[in-house]
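Hey, can you fold this one?
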Amino acid sequence: MLAEKIFAIAHYADQVVLIILVIMSIMSVGMIFERFMTLKKISNESARVRLRIKMALQTNSLQDFEDIAKDPSSLEGRAAAQAMKHMKESGLNGFEEVFNTFVLTEKPELEKYLAVLATIASNAPFIGLLGTVLGIMKAFNDLAQATDAGQQTVMAGISVALVATAAGLFVAIPAGIFYNYFTRKVKGIFVSLESVKELGIAFAKKKGVK
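Sure. Predicted structure:
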């Protein structure tokens, strides 16, 4: 009795799985496009700031921290501006905390959709596999019920069922690749922010700020 209900579900569930994978694919493509455009802009600004920091260290020009703080177009510039404002009002005490707090407030925006992409990448293959198992169950059940069905009927059913596994991998692979790519981009931005913070501390000490 229970087995019959399971087979009845399998007749429709394999198609439902494919619909779910299509929806996941559309969501994944949309999130990938949004993150790519957003992080590309932020990452390019971070690369520009890192170059300025490198030049500042080579020339021992710590004054560049003030110039970075005047640059609202970059995330580092906005963080430096907040820290500079605190430095002028309260000195070096609490400088790192203010800088780190700003970074933490920006972190959710930088990591937006990454958890969803990771979930899609890790679960889409299993959803596809479920669709394949249900499809195979459907194929063998059809064979058992149709006395005139032969090997070709089973093979045709299995080949259709394997589409779900292929679809699951098709969804998961790009999501996994871009998740790792975006994660590296975000880490690079955090490294850039950390270097700006250290430059700010060195600038404050050179100025005699306490």
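Residues 136 and 159 are 9 Å apart (CA to CA). Let me know if you want another pass with a different chain boundary.
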